[in-house]
Design a protein that fits this description.
This protein is mainly alpha-helical. The protein has one domain: Four Helix Bundle (Hemerythrin (Met), subunit A) (Up-down Bundle), CATH 1.20.120. 84% of the residues lie in helices and 0% in strands. The protein has 8 helices and no strands. α1 packs antiparallel against α2, α1 packs antiparallel against α4 and α1 crosses α6. The radius of gyration is 18 Å and the shape is globular. It starts with a helix and ends in a 10-residue tail after the last helix. The mean pLDDT is 94.
């Protein structure tokens, strides 16, 4: 059956990067467009990864749980779908504000407020998903079906962003789970990702946070 430990690992990355994002925006001095562009580029990447992640859940996970999970799935999956809708609304707002802010470095307080709303919705959603959905997925989905979820990310996220995103996940990831995730991947990503990903994230984090080892939020 499905090994859902990789979802906890992905959630840990989302918690870290999105919780740190509002302060990154607030710390940008008005008119410092060079710095704003760096933060906006990072935000664009993690928002795209999150959007692809949720799209994969919508297409791969929810239909199978509704078909097999009985009353438990029937009760919680609609809540997941409603939360996805709210998160998507916040993502749409945030991503619509970032381009102008990234080129002017003005309006940061309003942007940071909307990111705070997004983070609140996302944290609530992930906590419920870990508590209610993942046990159902482990019970009612096969490993092959769960792998479709990962394949969706590989197919949807741009390759350069995918390698960086994998490095983000590896930063606080469980090595055993990382090996399990890569075990069924084609040879090239299986060989390249664990080597390239951490280097890309270290360089990215140094530019973004001023350190290759930003605060580990975990959980």
């Amino acid at each position: 059956m499905a090994d859902v430990r990789d979802m906890f690992m992905a959630h840990r990355m989302f918690r870290r990067e999105f919780r740190l994002l509002p302060q990154l925006v607030r710390d940008v001095v008005p008119d410092d467009t060079e710095r704003a562009a760096v933060v906006a580029d990072h935000a664009d990447k993690i928002c795209a990864i999150l959007d692809a992640h949720h799209e994969g859940e919508d297409e791969v996970v929810w239909p199978r749980l509704l078909a097999r999970g009985g009353e438990a799935s029937a009760a919680v999956v609609p809540v997941m779908e409603k939360q996805h809708h709210g998160i998507h609304e916040s993502l749409t707002t945030v991503t619509s504000l970032f381009p102008a802010w990234g080129t002017t470095a003005r309006g940061g307080d309003d942007l940071a407020y909307h990111i705070d709303v997004l983070v609140e919705r996302l944290i609530e959603h992930m906590a419920l998903e870990e508590r209610e959905i993942l046990p159902l997925a482990a019970k009612h989905m096969t490993a092959a079906e769960w792998a479709l979820f990962g394949e969706h990310a590989f197919a949807t996220i741009p390759k350069k962003t995918l390698a960086l995103g994998f490095g983000m996940v590896m930063y606080e990831g469980d090595p055993e789970v990382i090996r399990a995730v890569l075990s069924n991947a084609p040879f090239v990503p299986r060989f390249v990702m664990p080597r390239l990903g951490p280097r890309l994230y270290a360089s990215h984090a140094k530019r973004l946070y001023g350190t290759a080892t930003p605060p580990r939020i975990g959980g």
